[in-house]
């Protein structure tokens, strides 16, 4: 991030508007907690409760009975974890090659990566589905993990970081000492790339956890991720609003926890990945 | 929104930290093309070919065949039949229109508010990190969760929105069945999720604008508003092009929000908020016509190409106009 800080101080009005924006951002999530800890009857009163109530555990129990939320949480953890590790690894490998190695076709390949960022993944969903049917992967987690590993953004993100942060001299010196490319990668590139790998990992995990379209196509209610389970909850079979909200809370909480702990890094990652001049 | 991933255009040259000047003459960097560099690229490009490029091309191929979900292995040649069937289906045109109106309803307010918030975040603030993080909370909430929450907030009888309106003396609005009302409600989910994210992208762009420009404007006696119009906005042009492109791509594929707003594939009782993405899903996984769904996907792709092209052209023309002044 650049060190440019506006010299102008924010006035009272600035704070007022920003605090309103924060309230609007946070209120729906707060309301989820309120609704998840009340009964339906309480929510339907003329003046609804605006504070959390005592029924959270009962509602969570009801969710566990309604949808395979336990399985879903575990599946989401496996899928998001595998996608994160794989994506960070593939992206760092390719990002290093694009940043520091010379080879034929480098410009064209990098151009292809950048161009593919403009193509929405949804558009390939039908053939992808036919592919996993052929491979008998329907309802198998690898059907979600493998396509999830393709992150053009990740490659580009790592390349940008390494171009700036990895001195050529280090690589030269290691070469002179007779180190192989693989050796250089593990002992020089990875230690330097670690902070960027962590940020990319966070962003990837969040995206994978929240992904919706492909998982609901590839998985069913027997083997859901959290988002697939939420779709069942909202699919009209459950009419109890407080139970739906309890499920929503459960599905959102893990990401919000990560966010609470590492929000600063996520903000930094998004701003780094943004346009720079 | 689909994970519209922020792409990272070229970063500014790094400040010269090393004693060597950054623009050193091109030295021999490694053995000219051994096998090794390709080995580094292999994992990504293998996956990219299998799960990225191939499906996209194959979509065009499948769209020319009758392909049914129950028998995905059997393709029967239809030529342009899927497309003609599409163009004679009134629901396709409804979905196209809805995608457009909801795209405008979600993208325009989202980007304008993000611009205003970024401007405020760019002041020297106490609790800077807190504000940035809190505004990003909606982005961390999944489409599914956000849609379920908003569906409840917009509920007809007990939804908080209608109760709030009731407090100020406005009759309850039928957010599920009114055409304009339901489109506004679904669009508001998108606006809520993406405004903070875009504000941070704009903020990053604003921080690259040299402060000398502001100081010079200050000396010339330009008001805050004039500074914003004549320093901030021109400096943000590439960022604005970028965010509007990404939002356009996202809006074209709007899917999770309308699906979960009520839980049905039809996007409301009279398809009043069914988007192209939802229409494609309904054709493919509701009615089992994968070939038809592929045709819709391809139409969506062309639509994105056209919209992004128009966006790029407009940006180029405007910067040429600026240069011509």
UniProtKB/TrEMBL annotation, chain A:
GO biological process: transmembrane transport
GO cellular component, one term: plasma membrane
Subcellular locations according to the entry: Cell membrane
Tagged with keyword Transport: yes
Major localization class: membrane
Pfam families per record: BPD_transp_1
Domain ABC transmembrane type-1 residue range list: 73-262
Keyword Transmembrane helix included in the entry's annotation: yes
Record-annotated membrane-spanning stretches: 12-31, 73-96, 108-132, 144-163, 184-209, 243-262
Membrane topology: Multi-pass membrane protein
Keyword terms, alphabetized: Cell membrane, Membrane, Transmembrane, Transmembrane helix, Transport
PANTHER family, A to Z: ABC TRANSPORTER PERMEASE PROTEIN MG189-RELATED, ABC TRANSPORTER PERMEASE PROTEIN MG189-RELATED-RELATED
Similarity remark: Belongs to the binding-protein-dependent transport system permease family.
Protein name as it appears in the record: Carbohydrate ABC transporter permease
Lineage, broadest ranks: Bacteria, Bacillati, Actinomycetota, Actinomycetes, Kitasatosporales
TrEMBL record, chain B:
InterPro entries the UniProt entry points to: ABC_transporter_permease, MetI-like, MetI-like_sf
Swiss-Prot/TrEMBL GO biological process terms: transmembrane transport
Localization (cell): Cell membrane
Organism: Streptomyces sp. R33
Any one of the GO CC terms: plasma membrane
One Pfam family of this chain: BPD_transp_1
Keyword Ubl conjugation attached: no
Annotated family: Belongs to the binding-protein-dependent transport system permease family.
Domain of life, source organism: Bacteria
UniProt cross-references to CDD domains, sorted A to Z: TM_PBP2 (cd06261)
Keywords: Cell membrane, Membrane, Transmembrane, Transmembrane helix, Transport
Name of the protein in its database record: Carbohydrate ABC transporter permease
Keyword field contains DNA-binding: no
Topological category with respect to the lipid bilayer: Multi-pass membrane protein
Transmembrane segments: 38-61, 100-121, 133-154, 295-315
Signal peptide positions (record): none
PROSITE patterns: ABC_TM1
Main localization (coarse): membrane
Domain ABC transmembrane type-1: start-end pairs: 96-309
Annotated Pro residues bias: 9-25
Region Disordered: start-end pairs: 1-30
């Amino acid at each position: 991030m650049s060190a440019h800080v506006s010299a102008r101080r924010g006035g009272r009005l600035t704070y007022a508007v920003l605090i309103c924006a924060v309230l609007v951002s946070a209120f729906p999530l707060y309301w989820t907690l309120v609704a998840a800890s009340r009964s339906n009857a309480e929510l339907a009163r003329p003046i609804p409760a605006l504070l959390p109530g005592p029924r959270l555990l009962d509602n969570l129990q009801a969710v566990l009975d309604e949808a395979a939320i336990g399985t879903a949480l575990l599946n989401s953890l496996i899928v998001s974890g595998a996608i994160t590790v794989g994506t960070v690894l593939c992206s760092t490998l390719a990002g290093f090659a694009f940043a520091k190695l010379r080879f034929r076709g480098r410009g064209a390949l990098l151009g292809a990566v950048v161009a593919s960022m403009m193509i929405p993944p949804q558009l390939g969903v039908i053939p992808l589905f036919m592919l996993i049917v052929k491979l008998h992967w329907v309802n198998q987690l690898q059907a979600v993990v493998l396509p999830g590993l393709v992150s053009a953004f990740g490659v580009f993100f790592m390349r940008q970081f390494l171009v700036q942060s990895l001195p050529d001299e280090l690589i030269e010196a290691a070469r002179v000492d007779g180190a192989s490319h693989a050796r250089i990668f593990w002992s020089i590139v990875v230690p330097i790339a670690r902070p960027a790998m962590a940020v990319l990992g966070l962003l990837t995990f969040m995206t994978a956890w929240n992904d919706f379209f492909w998982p609901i196509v590839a998985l069913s209610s027997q083997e859901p991720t959290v988002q697939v389970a939420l779709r069942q909850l909202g699919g009209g079979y459950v009419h109890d609003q407080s139970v739906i909200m309890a499920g929503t809370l459960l599905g959102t909480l893990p990401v919000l926890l990560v966010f609470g702990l590492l929000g600063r890094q996520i903000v930094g990652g998004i701003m780094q990945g943004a346009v720079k001049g | 929104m689909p994970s519209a991933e922020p792409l990272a255009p070229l970063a500014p040259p790094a400040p010269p930290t090393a004693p060597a000047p950054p623009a050193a003459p091109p030295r021999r960097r490694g053995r000219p093309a051994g096998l090794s560099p390709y080995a580094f690229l292999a994992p990504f490009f293998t996956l990219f070919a299998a799960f990225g490029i191939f499906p996209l091309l194959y979509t065009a191929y499948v769209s020319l065949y009758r392909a049914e979900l129950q028998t995905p292995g059997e393709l029967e040649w239809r030529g342009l039949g899927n497309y003609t069937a599409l163009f004679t289906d009134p629901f396709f045109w409804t979905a196209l229109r809805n995608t457009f109106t909801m795209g405008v309803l979600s993208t325009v307010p989202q980007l304008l508010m993000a611009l205003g918030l970024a401007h405020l975040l760019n002041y020297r603030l106490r609790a800077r990190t807190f504000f940035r993080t809190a505004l990003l909370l909606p982005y961390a909430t999944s489409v599914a969760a956000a849609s379920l929450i908003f569906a409840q907030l917009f509920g007809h009888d007990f939804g908080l929105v209608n109760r709030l309106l009731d407090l100020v003396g406005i009759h309850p609005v039928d957010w599920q069945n009114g055409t304009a009302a339901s489109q506004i409600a679904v669009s508001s989910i998108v606006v809520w999720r993406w405004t903070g994210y875009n504000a941070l992208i704009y903020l990053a762009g604003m921080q690259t604008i040299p402060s000398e420009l502001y100081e010079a404007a200050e000396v010339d006696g330009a008001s805050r508003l004039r500074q914003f119009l004549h320093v901030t906005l021109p400096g943000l042009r590439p960022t604005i092009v970028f965010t509007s492109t990404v939002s356009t791509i996202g809006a074209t594929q709007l899917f999770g929000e309308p699906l979960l707003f009520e839980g049905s594939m039809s996007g409301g009782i009279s398809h009043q908020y069914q988007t192209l993405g939802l229409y494609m899903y309904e054709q493919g996984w509701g009615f089992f016509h994968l070939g038809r769904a592929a045709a819709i996907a391809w139409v969506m792709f062309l639509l994105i190409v056209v919209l992004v092209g128009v966006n790029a052209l407009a940006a180029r023309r405007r910067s040429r106009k600026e240069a011509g002044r």
